[in-house]
Design a protein that fits this description.
450 residues; alpha/beta; FAD/NAD(P)-binding domain; Elongation Factor Tu (Ef-tu), domain 3; six-stranded antiparallel sheet; five-stranded parallel sheet; 14 helices; 16% strand; globular
């Protein structure tokens, strides 16, 4: 006789937010029906059948506890994050960043989720969450379909939840085979690292002539034009390099191609492209910040003109994909449940955040709120001094729906003493104080709420 579970939740989508929600709930004795459509229909950015596929970079950002992402990771770990635990198991060298072997990462998460006795994976395209709620007799439904929600469900959300379908565009950076690069021209060095020993980043130095030719190529190359029904809205902190190049000839060398801190033999190049290891073996590299809209043939032509790239072989070229998200301040409650139906929750990027860890954190946040509902408790209000609280505060107060990563600008400021204000390292001091405040706040918050 099969066991009857009185607590039942459906999670739609097995991306970062979905797997976090599912695992958090299942670990608390709640039956989870996890719906995933990849085996039936993939989105344009998806390549594999595995859960939690990292479709853009392989970096989960900084591990520095005094960084905004470090603060967020501390809170996620306090909630028992599956994503961060597996990321630690699958980490590849990336300086102070948490980067992973994305294939190993996705496979391990898929294995752990599918083998959990309280998680039932259902391969199905969901177009109506209300239908799923009735059919599977669940108490709550979590929509965690990410930035590329399929058309049927997107139409349902537009009709039942949001008046307008809001979206913007993001882009994927190329991945190049290490053996196809000329290592006599390139050099290993982390930014501001004096000796370059055991560096995690491979650098491509460009002189002025090479840089100017590269910028000209980006601006003049053919791009993949949006469909006539699409209205591209780019995320400012993840702009395609061709868009950045069109904003001015020096834009790239003051952003993703900044040469400062990457001197070679005491000399600074005019511009530098950084490549980050894509896996532990170092057999392939991610072109950091090189998301773009160029047609594939144009990417190969332009990139092979770069120093050391003459014979470059690309495992994956850059591409552009649509990202769907809600204006949460208008349609969701503070616990990310729908104002029209508080048994329906939205988690991950679709809620209006941007980034891997941010999306996963929203999955944990929603699961925590559902767990409290089962305990008869009111929604938990996270302090704005914490990263999760700051993200929730941002998306619930934003007058214009603009997805955001976690950053110090979202966290309340701290007051510096007169002496601290005069210190040339005042920015670092301020970040350390914000981080210390968050650690102290998390300690007291965790004891009462988690």
């Amino acid at each position: 006789m099969s066991q009857v579970f009185t607590k039942r939740v459906a999670v739609i989508g097995a991306g970062l937010a979905g797997v976090e929600s599912a695992m958090y709930l299942a670990s608390r004795g709640i039956k989870v029906f996890l719906f995933e459509s990849k085996t039936i229909e993939k989105t344009p950015a998806q390549k594999t059948q595995d859960f939690a596929e990292l479709v853009c970079t392989n970096s989960l950002k900084s591990k520095d506890p005094n960084s905004a992402h470090g603060i967020l990771k501390s809170e996620m770990n306090a909630l028992g994050s599956l994503v961060l635990r597996v990321a630690a198991d699958c980490a590849v060298p990336a300086g102070n960043a948490l980067s992973v072997d994305r294939e190993k990462f996705a496979k391990q998460i898929t294995s752990e989720v599918t083998n959990h006795e309280l998680i039932e994976v259902i391969h199905e395209i969901v177009e109506d969450p209300e239908k799923i709620k009735k059919e599977y007799n669940v108490d709550f439904v979590v929509v965690a379909t990410g930035p590329l929600t399929l058309e049927g469900l997107e139409k349902w959300i537009k009709k039942e939840i949001a008046d307008d379908n809001l979206y913007f565009y993001d882009a994927i950076a190329p991945i190049v085979d290490a053996d196809s690069l000329d290592m006599d021209i390139l050099f290993f060095k982390n930014r501001y690292d004096d000796d370059g020993v055991n560096a995690d980043y491979l650098n491509v130095p460009l002189n002025q002539e090479q840089y100017l030719e590269f910028v000209d190529d980006l601006v003049s190359s053919e791009i993949v034009e949006p469909q006539n029904f699409e209205d591209p809205k780019f995320f400012e902190s993840c702009l395609p390099i061709d868009v950045m190049a069109s904003r001015g000839v020096d834009t790239l060398r003051f952003s993703c191609m900044k040469p400062v801190g990457l001197e070679q033999n005491g000399e600074m190049a005019y511009a530098v492209i950084q490549l980050r290891k894509e896996n532990l073996l170092g057999s392939s590299f991610n072109m950091v910040g090189f998301q773009n809209r160029l047609k594939y043939k144009e990417q190969v032509r332009v990139f092979r003109k770069l120093p050391g790239f003459e014979n470059a072989v690309f495992h994956h070229l850059g591409s552009v994909h649509r990202n769907t998200y809600l204006h949460s301040a208008q349609v969701l409650n503070s616990d990310l449940s729908s104002k029209k139906d508080d048994s329906l929750f939205f988690a991950g990027q679709i809620s209006g955040v941007e980034g891997y860890t941010e999306s996963a954190a929203m999955g944990l946040f929603v699961a925590h709120q559902i767990s409290r509902r089962y305990e008869g408790l009111t929604p938990c209000v996270w302090p704005k001094e914490l990263a999760i609280g700051a993200l929730i505060n941002y998306i619930m107060t934003s007058k214009k729906p603009r997805p955001s990563n976690i950053n110090f600008g979202l966290l309340p400021s701290v007051n510096l003493t007169r002496e601290q204000r005069r210190n040339k390292f005042r920015k670092s001091i301020k970040k350390e104080l914000v981080a210390k405040r968050a650690i102290d706040k998390l300690t007291s918050f965790k004891d009462l709420n988690l």
